[in-house]
Amino acid sequence: MSSYCYLLLLLATFSAVVTAQRPSFGRCPSMNNLPAVELHKLKGQWYEVERSFYMFELHRKCIGVYIQPQGKVAKLTTTFKNRITDNSGTDQATATQYGNNSPKLRLIVEGSMSDPIRRVLPGSGDYFILTTDYDNYAVIYSCSNMASLLHADLVWVLSRERELSPKFRVDIYDAMIKHGLKSDILTLTNQKDCS
Fold this sequence. Notes:
It is a single chain. The protein has a single domain, classed as Calycin beta-barrel core domain (Lipocalin, Beta Barrel). It is globular and about 45 Å long. By secondary structure, it is α+β, with helices and mostly antiparallel strands. Strand 5 and strand 6 (about 105-110) form a beta hairpin. Helices cover about 15% and strands about 40% of the residues. Strands 2-3-4-5-6-7-8-9 form an eight-stranded antiparallel barrel. The N and C termini lie far apart (about 55 Å). The protein is built from three helices and ten strands; from the N terminus they run αββββββαβββαβ.
């Protein structure tokens, strides 16, 4: 194998590990023609019921997200339990809508580090609300292009309850397929023994 191929393989592996996402060949799919999103209707408690591979959540179970919108900005509080120690944890983030009713959000993980560092932390970046009915489910999507050859993406399926009815999963998977995403990349999030 040529040194160019080794370099390309090393770069792809490094990029995938750094972003901790699921790498794939090609560029991110276009997220045009997404429905408008009324951020205030997302207010309240949500639970992660499915997700694509995300290294920073491998040790987590019982993941919940509380969304508190204020205009085009929403405060997100993520709660979880550690799978190994069973200890509880919390993360904070701020999501800002790009425009009125835009399905695109800019998420910044909060912390004590400076703003430029927080912007590149795992989890910070652009997110799309792929589909939601506000009362039962929401699908969140993020994708980063890595050069022209690869992209790394994340998908989260959120539900108002710890379990999501199969009838809503059909709608979710149809929306994913419509936007060029495969539902077989999703795995169930452990929502057992969360009390």
